[in-house]
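Private note to self, pasted from the team thread so I don't lose it. Backbone tokens:
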């Protein structure tokens, strides 16, 4: 086993429940690299939602919560409020975060609570058998949109930024080093950070939307639908319209953070009362 796997994997939970070729292992590995580079293992708490992606923290030997579908952000918020020195990381799927948990997502971002949300964008509800998700492309065929998805997908990064998130980045599982660096940056940022990861789900999204379960082909498809912010900056917008931007898309270090602001209020109120 790789030394980082030896150091960080929760051996008792192995083997992974994921299908062969699933991107969740790459995301776990990037998270481990980020945590190791910051040397914060003793100071983290991991929160997983429900879905294949919600299992990522189960495999990492650290303080972990595996919580109700769509409720990872409120659990993480409560944790941060009660233990503000912790670095709190949320692993959530596109259904978990933007579907059932959409309301919690926008309010977490609005409050600018200091948590890092890692949103696993696999275009589908993987764990439950391939239902349409809020990120399924328009016209994409799924088990619940057999004639093509009549809806339009959310752009999670635009939504996060508009709702008030202060660090927003997007990468793919085809960019493991950039992803690990973005996760380290997001964890170091004091505020609501959102890292979206475009990833392959060979078993559901692959077979039903893209007609292939080959992870390499799926990664090529994902990459072809993206462009880096740097590359886009040098081109007229018509040339890259419709593609998803990769890189750091937003960073505002100045907006006050919720947990520390709230704590200051409590201390101020207590002092006023002479407590
Ligand atoms: C309240 C509630 N509703 C529905 C479910 C069933 N359910 C479990 S996982 C899931 C979808 C997960 O999709 P996503 O969040 O995209 O995660 P993925 O499996 O794709 O990583 C659903 C609907 C549930 N567990 N709890
Ligand atoms: S169903 Fe998709 S997301 Fe879930 S483990 Fe299998 S490949 Fe991964
Ligand atoms: Mg999903």
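Design output:
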């Amino acid at each position: 086993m790789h030394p980082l796997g030896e150091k960080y994997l929760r051996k008792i939970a192995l083997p992974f429940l994921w299908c062969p070729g699933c991107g969740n292992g790459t995301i776990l590995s990037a998270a481990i690299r980020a945590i190791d580079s910051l040397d914060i293992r003793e100071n983290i708490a991991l929160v997983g939602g429900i879905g294949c992606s919600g299992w990522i923290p189960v495999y990492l030997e650290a303080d972990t919560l595996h919580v109700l579908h769509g409720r990872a952000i409120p659990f993480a918020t409560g944790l941060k409020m009660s233990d503000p020195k912790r670095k709190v990381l949320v692993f959530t799927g596109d259904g978990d975060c933007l579907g059932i948990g959409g309301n919690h997502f926008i309010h977490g971002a609005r409050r600018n609570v200091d948590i890092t949300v890692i949103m696993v964008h696999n275009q589908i509800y993987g764990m439950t058998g391939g239902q349409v998700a809020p990120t399924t492309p328009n016209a994409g065929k799924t088990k619940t949109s057999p004639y093509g998805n009549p809806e339009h997908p959310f752009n999670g990064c635009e939504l996060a930024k508009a709702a008030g998130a202060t660090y927003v980045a997007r990468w793919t599982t085809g960019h493991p080093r950039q992803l690990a660096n973005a996760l380290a940056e997001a964890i170091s940022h004091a505020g609501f950070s959102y890292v979206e990861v475009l990833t392959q789900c060979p078993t559901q999204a692959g077979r039903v939307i893209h007609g292939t379960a080959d992870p390499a082909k799926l990664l090529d498809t994902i990459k072809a639908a993206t462009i880096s912010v740097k590359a886009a900056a040098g081109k007229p917008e018509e040339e890259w319209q419709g593609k998803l931007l990769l890189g750091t898309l937003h960073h505002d270090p100045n907006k006050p953070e919720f947990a520390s602001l709230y704590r200051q209020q409590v201390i101020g109120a207590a002092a006023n009362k002479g407590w």
